[in-house]
Write a structure and sequence with these properties.
Blueprint lengths: L1 H5 L1 H64 L5 H10 L2 H4 L3 E10 L4 H10 L5 H4 L11 E8 L3 H4 L10 H13 L3 E4 L10 E9 L8 H6 L1 E10 H4 L1 H9 L2 E9 L10 E5 L13 E8 L2 E9 L6 H60 L4 E4 L5 E4 L1 H7 L26 E8 L5 E12 L5 E10 L1 H23 L5 E3 L5 E4 L2
Antiparallel strand pairs: 1-2, 1-5, 3-4, 4-5, 6-7, 6-9, 8-9, 10-11, 10-14, 12-13, 13-14, 15-16
Helix pairs in contact: 2-12
């Protein structure tokens, strides 16, 4: 405890410095957090818009295919393949890996349709030599054309898309509205869940939308583009990770056609937490894409601050702590040096002070008159030997006594010194006459600190004065009763008094 008291001021100074540092760090953290929130919202909105722009770009390629079929409804396999290659989709949209054409085929025309496709000897004849449509749907939506055409994509030819109820419903809705739409699709030889298909209906000899029946009557087929969701979101995922976020893409579906209202996860970052993330930690951006609504979700992988901002806060905290310790150490060092200097000066001044006090006490004791010193409470704090001898009672000292010796003015706060004459019966039984002076004492700030009482013994002079007065009075009486005539003259022989 003694050590704590010794370093109390330094400890208080250090705690004050740490408190100020904590306040500064808190204020700076608030500013950083506010900036981070704004930066996070801008980043998430930008990533969502970037993803929507990529999908719009892919839809634009399908519209090129749509325009070509409207102009030439009977495009051959070679022409279709050249048309797709001219779109340069592999460079413009790397996530897009294939483009196809779906044609509706009635059940009664299916066999002839298969023979016609096999009999063609043009582009890709070796892949169409075994063309076959195996389906129970009527009418069926058959994949007739695909580009690029190779051994992997050739196995998709003849696939009936209407076998899948959600796809069938989507194609029916798109046929009657003329709008693009999309859905997840599983293709043979491709990773399950990673392929997403965009569909765009194509009409023949139709330049304006009239009604649903007209659109369905002039329906030629649908252009379809397949893309990998992992590649589509690769750039978005990297940008999100670099900013400290994991992302997830959810398809919320649409209520436009039956069976399409879903809420399925299309893609999730590898860093997306395996446990259930609280709603407070997830931020969402909605996208309307090809007749469906996507929800792009973000969650923070670390704190809201960037590493640079965290380093600034840590450095500020360390700097504040070090400066607080340094100031406390320097103040304690200065205080100790100052204290040692004071002790040294006290050690040097102590003998002089003691000597001065001894000399002053000797002078006061040598005074032949009684001296008393009282504090503000009226207690006697000093009495010289003469005062003890004259005014003391029995063997008791006058020190700490509060009764007055001559007058109550000894105990009061006087505005100025007071001089009085008193007769006092002293300790030795003699009554003496005193000329008493009561003087107030004040410090450097003029505050009253007590009174000093100086009693001068005037008994002898008083006795002489009384004796002379007695002789004068006696002479006057003798003169008055005498019958003689007498007079008084001064040094120049002038008469100064003549009796009656």
């Amino acid at each position: 405890m003694q050590h704590i008291k010794r370093f109390r001021t330094a400890i208080l100074l250090m705690l004050s410095g740490l408190t100020l540092t904590a306040i500064a760090v808190g204020l700076l953290y608030g500013q950083f957090a506010s900036s981070a929130l704004m930066r996070k919202q801008q980043l998430q909105f930008g990533l969502a818009q970037q993803l929507a722009a990529h999908l719009v770009q892919k839809e634009a390629i399908l519209r090129q295919i749509q325009s070509a079929f409207i102009a030439h409804p009977t495009l051959s396999r070679g022409q279709f393949n050249q048309l797709v290659l001219n779109t340069n989709f592999s460079v413009r949209t790397p996530a897009l890996f294939a483009i196809g054409f779906i044609r509706p085929v009635a059940t009664a025309q299916r066999d002839q349709y298969i023979l016609d496709r096999r009999s063609e000897t043009g582009f890709g004849a070796e892949f169409y030599s075994t063309f076959y449509v195996q389906t129970q749907s009527s009418p069926s939506q058959v994949l007739e054309l695909v580009s690029p055409l190779n051994r992997s994509s050739a196995q998709w030819l003849g696939e009936d898309f209407s076998k899948n109820p959600p796809v069938h419903a989507g194609l029916a809705w798109a046929t009657g509205t003329g709008q693009a739409w999309g859905s997840v699709m599983n293709l043979r030889g491709m990773p399950s869940g990673d392929v997403y298909a965009l569909y765009l209906p194509i009409y023949q000899a139709l330049f304006e939308h009239t009604n649903k029946e007209t659109l369905e009557y002039n329906y030629l087929g649908s252009a379809v583009a397949w893309l990998k969701l992992s590649e589509l979101l690769a750039e978005t995922e990297r940008a999100a990770h670099s900013a400290g976020f994991a992302l997830r893409l959810i398809d919320q579906g649409t209520s436009e056609f039956e069976g399409s209202k879903t809420d399925s996860i299309l893609f999730a970052s590898k860093k997306w937490p395996n446990f259930k993330v609280s709603a407070e930690r997830v931020n969402s951006q909605l996208l309307s894409v090809a007749g469906r609504q996507w929800r792009l979700e973000f969650t923070e992988l670390a704190g809201p601050l960037q590493p640079t901002e965290q380093r600034i806060l840590v450095m500020l905290a360390l700097l504040g702590g070090v400066l607080s310790l340094l100031f406390a150490f320097m103040f304690q060092r200065y205080f100790q040096q100052h204290r040692q200097l004071e002790l040294l000066m006290q050690q040097q001044e102590a003998p002089l002070q003691m000597r001065f006090e001894r000399e002053s006490l000797a002078i006061l004791e040598a005074v032949s008159d009684p001296l008393l010193l009282r504090d503000t409470t009226g207690k006697v704090v000093y009495a010289n030997a003469m005062a003890e001898l004259r005014f003391g009672q029995d063997a008791q000292s006058l020190i700490d006594h509060s009764h007055f010796v001559f007058d109550a003015a000894e105990l009061g706060n006087l505005a100025m010194p007071v001089q009085l004459n008193f007769a006092h019966l002293d300790r030795d039984g003699l009554e003496r006459q005193y000329d008493v002076i009561i003087k107030p004492l004040r410090n450097d700030e003029l505050h009253w600190i007590g009174n000093v009482v100086h009693a001068r013994d005037i008994s002898a002079s008083t006795a002489v004065t009384l004796d002379l007065q007695y002789q004068l009075d006696r002479l006057n009486k003798l003169v008055e009763v005498s019958s003689d005539w007498f007079w008084e003259q001064d040094a120049q022989a002038r008469f100064t008094y003549v009796s009656g």
